Amino acid sequence: MANAKTVFWSSSSPKSLGDSFDAKVSGLSFSGCDFDVYWLNHPSKRGMASCTATCPDGERTDMVAAKENCNGNGCCLILFGDTWFDSPSTAKFKFVRRGEVNLESHHNRSLLWETINAYPWEYITWRIVDHPDCVSAPTRAFAKTWWTFGNYGYNCKCRNGYRGNPYILDGCSPDNGYSPFQQKSNCIRHCGNISVPFPFGLEEGCYARIQFYLSCQNATSSTLVLDDGYGSTYNVTNISVDNGLIEYIGPKTASEVEIYTPDDDWPQSLYVRVGTPVVSVQWVAAHLTCQDAKRNSSGYACISTNSECITSNPSDRYVGYRCKYAQGYQGNPYIRNGCVGIAIGLSVGFGILLFCLSGGFIIRRCRNDIQKQVKRKYFEKNKGLLLEQLICSNEKPSENKIFPLEELQKATNNFDPTRIIGIGGHGIVYKGILSDQRVVAIKKPKIIKEGEINQFINEYMTIPNGSLFGIIHADRSNEEFLSWGDCIRIATEAARALYYLHSAASWSVFHRDVKSSNILLDGNYTAMVSDFGASRLIPFDQSHVITNIQGTFGYLDPEYYYTGQLNEKSDVYSFGVVLVELLLRKEPIFTDESGSKKNLSNYFISEIKDRPIREIVASHVLEEATEDEINTIASLAEDCLRLRGEERPTMKEVEMKLHFLHNKVNVVQQSNNERHLLQPTRPPHHKAMTIDTGNKAILESSTCYNLE
């Protein structure tokens, strides 16, 4: 047989076997090995696999397989319907080999392994002919209905919710399979995060009837499976005892779930699919109306005092009942005292909540009083009284204020790490936004010695746009980035500030820690050289000073590192590294593609000897800058990075070259999606600014402001 084959089957009309009997084909059995049969023109599940036959272990003929129970071992069965009225006149089948068994390896296989044979299944129906139909037949039993069968006669069956023999007195018994009490204590009631309430259960003795048994196949993934006993399985996601619903996913979709309506000798399924927005089935406690269920008190499901019985979906083919808590209550109506009053619960809960709040308020007030006393003690100990006197003696005391800790916490978003703008030896500086929207710097002390308190009390400035390092090394998709023109302007301003320190002040100031993270940008993106904690003041009659090595690795002048002699050319070398950062957009110590750590200045000097400069600069610099501008900056950076300090230019020469280049560059950037950073309007006397974040001085224009 081929891997897939489609065949047709036709039936004839029922054959009469006598006055009281009829014969009809009710299905087909298929004997064979390792195949699936698909009933293609099935009225409700087109194309679904209808039955599967596996290969038997031993020798077995096809007739033996077909005549036995046909349970899938060498034979499978397809039933056409519940009655002979359902038998189709024509059925279309598709046979597909499953390919799970190597037939060639079985040398002694029987004919059953070679072919697939189909045999009709027939049944004989009978009828009582003492009356022509149900209407004329006398009513003799409580739970009987009658069917007119054919042209003459009738048949009996137990009414919905009952089963047994309708032809004997009291032969139909009600559905009494429900047991309202849990037999086992300490039942498991969860499968992962899915609750399994009674009457359902995961263990024997924990459910009300066998049809309510669920299998927790994997608690970690919350895999809960229900088998309705009629070939349908549900991966349960939620069980609602009040609504009588089970929500589920797969393995079958809602359209594929078929509610099996069995014959008289079979109980009806307790589950029926409902058309709710969520894929779900409705369940009932038993196939009884509420009236019939209440007659059997020992098997009645609604045992909670405040529960109600609801007859669910009554019809001539399906009937059942479920329980629901009464109005004003909630809980589980299927367990004793399972329905809790909402009003009572709210009252008790409100009382407990009020008690907890009152107790919490008293405790919190006591703690606040203690904290106030401790804070006042520390305030007086840490020069707080002196601070109060200074504020009162000020000509404009209204402009000065002592802020409570709570307001400072609010201004810094509870000292959020993202608000940090500087870290010193004695404290951390945060950017704060006061209630009147003023931006301030708030310094939070570290644990320091009492003798260092005076060193902690210093002023600070807030820098809204961070440092040059933070912007040029940020992701370019960030909304804040600098154009090439802005980079040249900022470099020019920083060089002008360093030149002023070296030669324009009464004393020469060697910064000793020039780096892009110490070039800060204010609200107008004006460069401000900061952090003079490592700076040294040098008299004009001295060209250098011998000092301990201090600086940042990657920016440190190698000549200063090896000799210990600090001079103005040490700052020039460090500034040259900043220029290379602007060109290559790499950090002073970076990791290359092979994963090796490299020094940026050494990498730059080595690469420009072997490759054109346009091959090593950052791509977006290459897009914005002209070749002449790139060559100018690269040449200036190369001069600044010479190993011998005497061969390097002075900061004045560096500033002049940058100033000349800046005048040639159009700094206006036109872009709809990027920040427009223009050179700010400056007063005629404007000079670059330097700020001190230590305890030295702030330099702005030509005026010096003491921080103490």
From TrEMBL:
A cellular component term, taken from the record's GO annotations: plasma membrane
Domain Protein kinase: 329-661
Major localisation: membrane
Residue numbers binding ATP: K444
Topological relation to the membrane, as annotated: Single-pass type I membrane protein
SUPFAM superfamilies, alphabetized: Protein kinase-like (PK-like) (SSF56112)
Iron-sulfur in keyword set: no
GO biological process, one term: cell surface receptor signaling pathway
A single GO molecular function term of this UniProt record: polysaccharide binding
Segments passing through the bilayer: 340-363
UniProt keyword annotation of Glycoprotein present: yes
Cellular compartments annotated: Membrane
Keyword terms: ATP-binding, Disulfide bond, Glycoprotein, Kinase, Membrane, Nucleotide-binding, Signal, Transferase, Transmembrane, Transmembrane helix
Xref: InterPro entries: Kinase-like_dom_sf, Prot_kinase_dom, Protein_kinase_ATP_BS, Ser/Thr_kinase_AS, WAK-like, WAK_GUB
Name this protein carries in UniProt: Protein kinase domain-containing protein
